[in-house]
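Researcher: Please predict.
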Amino acid sequence: MSTLEEHVDVGVPLDKAWDSLHRTENYPRFLEGVRDARTEAEGRARLDVEAGGRAREVEAEVSDRVRERVMKWQTRGAPDLAGSFSLQPIDQNHTRVQARLEYDPGTVREAFGGPRGFAQANAIERLVRSDLEHFKEYVEHGR
């Protein structure tokens, strides 16, 4: 498994960032390739994703550690992905959003296509960084 960690500082209070992260239906506004997202029963989310020219449905189990402000997720079925978002207050009006993604590069390539090896790792890193920047715009400006 490979692990990727990235973060972004957003200009909103902790509670606003936390609430925004939990609005699954708005994921297409800031997650590249997500065409539709919805919350389902029992802590699950379903995302319609298009990546590498392939469309697929991904189901994930989501759990929260509210006191620590950590949201964890794990896909159910292929592709096997796991990750978390943790939020830390910087001050009263700023929050650090830390994203962690655990993935097997071969599994990601099989599921979504794309380059192999180092090129794929760089592509995933750029995608996560871009998604965090889009989240920042979304949470700060509603875009």
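Model: The chain has a mean pLDDT of 88.
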